[in-house]
Amino acid sequence: MPADAVASARAADTGDAGAGDAGARGWLQRHLSKLVVAPSFAAALIFFYGFILWTVIISLTGSRMLPSYEIVGFENYVNIWRLSRWETAVENLFLFGVLFMGLSMALGCLLAVLLDQRIRAEGALRTIYLYPMAISYIVTGTAWKWLLDPGIGLEKAMHDLGWTGFAFNWINDPDMAIYTIVLAAVWQASGFVMAMVLAALRGVDDEIIKAAWLDGASLANIYRRIIIPTIRPVFLSAFVILMHLAIKTFDLVMALTAAGPGTATSVPATFMYDMAFQRDRLDFAATSAVMMLATVAAIIVPYLYSEIRSGKRG
Questions:
Q1: Do 59 and 287 touch, CB atoms closer than 8 A?
Q2: Mean of pLDDT values over 23-45
Q3: Given this model, what pLDDT does residue 284 score?
Q4: pLDDT digits (tens, 9 = 90+) for 98-120
């Protein structure tokens, strides 16, 4: 074969190889982000949505200690309401949720308004109020358990100071124990609400407020007619987050009261744990979990839908 023909063949081979390498690099660059995300997406698909589906299936079965896949329909969703412990858990959740969300919103908004007045040491106070949110609920529950324990906490401290008539034994009182959960939860979450509302207040246009001042509007009217309507989406976001926290409250209750005395502070999450690991009723545990998920979805899905629609309109 002539030398020039051999050179031409080699050049052609080299050109094809280079084109192939360039094509592979281009494909890799186009799909690199998908390849990086693919493992975590697959893990979430299997271990999150897969187990949600599995829990729904178990809730339709008669499983006891071990899973059983013999479908019994929606009997568990009817029978669970015949359990006094489930009714107690739902009542406690309703009471806890209303007080927790109401007090957290009120205290958080009050702190935000006070800090918005540009007071001294604002940074330090903001950090102090927000710090509890950085603590886990286990730590919060343990700390409040020590504080409220009549033998070592606040009551004993008052007795040591000479106030022997002081009594504060809510944590041991079945009628008052649920309010200790509310106290600890509000202490932890109100700073988070404060941070959200304060950031929204700082985002309000000062020119509008100055114009209202010049027109003779009072501070109450400025907040009621200008500031609050402007930051209304923040209230909705805080409300959704607090409700989500209230529905899935578990570790705070277990650390503070262990759902006691008796079942006085039982909530759906502790009911689910008890049925799954202590009563060998996997079917009721799965049923309660699905009902909690449905409640959270009923709150989150409309909120996300409204956010997506408002984003498209914007």
A1: yes
A2: 80
A3: 95
A4: 999 999 999 999 999 888 887 78
Amino acid letter for position 256:
L
**How far is residue 228's CA from residue 208's CA, in Å, rounded to a whole number?**
13
| Region 4-22 average pLDDT | 52
In the numeric block, the tokens 């002539």 are attached to 2
Each residue of 58-70: pLDDT tens digit?
Answer: 999 999 988 989 9
Instruction: Give which of 280, 285, 288, 283 is closest to 71, Cα–Cα.
Output: 283
Tell whether the torsion through CA atoms of 247, 248, 254 and 255 is positive or negative.
negative
Q: Decide if 25 is inside a domain.
A: no
Q: Which residues contact 277 (CB under 8 A, 6 or more apart)?
A: none
How many Cβ atoms sit within 10 Å of the Cβ of residue 71?
10
Largest Cα separation within the chain, whole Å, is 114
CA angle 204, 207, 212 (to 5 degrees): 95
304: Cα separation from own chain's centroid: 15
**Residue 127 one-letter amino acid:** T
Q: Distance between CA atoms of 167 and 130, rounded to whole angstroms?
A: 30
Per-residue pLDDT tens digits for 68-97: 899 999 999 999 999 999 999 999 999 999
Expressed as residue numbers, the domain containing 201 is 84-313
Taking a C-beta distance cutoff of 8 angstroms, is the pair 97, 230 a contact?
Answer: no
206: domain CATH number?
A: 1.10.3720.10
The torsion angles phi and psi of 228, rounded to 5 degrees, stand at -60, -45
Phi/psi at 267 (nearest 5 deg)?
Answer: -130, 170
Q: Could you tell me if residue 283 is inside a domain?
A: yes
